[in-house]
Amino acid sequence: MILLLKYGKCRQVSFSTQTTVCSWRTGLKQAKKSKRNAESEYDRREFIEEIGILFEDTGHPRMAGRIFGLLLVAEQPMLSSAEITEELQASKASVSTMTRLLLQSGLIERVARPGDRKDYFRMKSWSFDLVMERQLALIPVFRKLLEKGRPMVPPANRPGRESLEQMIDFYNWLEQEIPALKERWNRRKV
After folding, report:
1. What sections of the protein cross the membrane (predicted)?
2. How does strand 9-13 pair with strand 2-6?
3. Based on the domain organization, do 141 and 95 belong to the same domain?
4. pLDDT of residue 8
5. Using a CB cutoff of 8 Å and minimum separation of 24, what contacts does 110-117 make?
6. 183 vs 124, 137, 145, 179, 187, CA distance in Å?
């Protein structure tokens, strides 16, 4: 007998040709499956990191985005703090702080399992709608702030005035279009 080391797994194989071929084919099938799983796991981890970067690009902590991304693609519908910490290779303090931020933002929710003292976290099924509502609510606020800046732009700053006017026009237009867009979206969801 010999030991066959292939794709990180050690298998015992006899000298019999039939056994060696069967074992090799089994090992090859397992290796291909492991490779697919590894590629899938890599894609999953890459997705989680990209969500983290997207969060960071929009002014939020990257770790909050990583947790959000993980909860989106987790095999289980809810994860404990310890599971999140292990999966993301993050500190307990960071996971605790960022889950609290995501809870306060309304993107995730804390749940309990009967008989278990741990806190678990999962996605809120309507979190996207909540986030969009919050973002849309900022449109009139931003437009009003821009209008407040009109008298502050000196006449000599023509490019500044043109940019300001274009932004005000855009946000006015967006404010008028939002109700119809929301209505179309709500009809589509049903």
Report:
1. none
2. antiparallel
3. no
4. 41
5. 111/78
6. 22, 16, 27, 6, 6
107 and 131 assigned to the same domain: no
Give the tens place of pLDDT for each residue, 52-71.
Answer: 999 999 999 999 999 999 99
Q: Which residue has the tokens 């010999």?
A: 2
Task: Give the domain CATH number at 62.
Answer: 1.10.10.10
Distance CA 26, CA 104 (A): 50
| 70-83: pLDDT as tens digits | 999 999 999 999 99
Beta bridge partners, 3, equal 12
Determine the longest span between alpha carbons in the chain, in angstroms.
92
Domain that holds residue 131: 127-189
Looking at the fold, whether 51 and 99 belong to one and the same domain comes out as: yes
Provide Rg for the chain, Cα atoms: 26
Among 123, 144, 170, the domain-final residue is: 123
Domain boundary among 74, 105, 123: 123
- At residue 126, the 3 state secondary structure works out as coil
Q: Are 157 and 132 in contact (CB under 8 A)?
A: no
Residue 125 structure tokens: 């099924």
pLDDT over threshold 90, residue 37:
no
* Main-chain phi, psi angles of 111, to 5 degrees: -130, 160
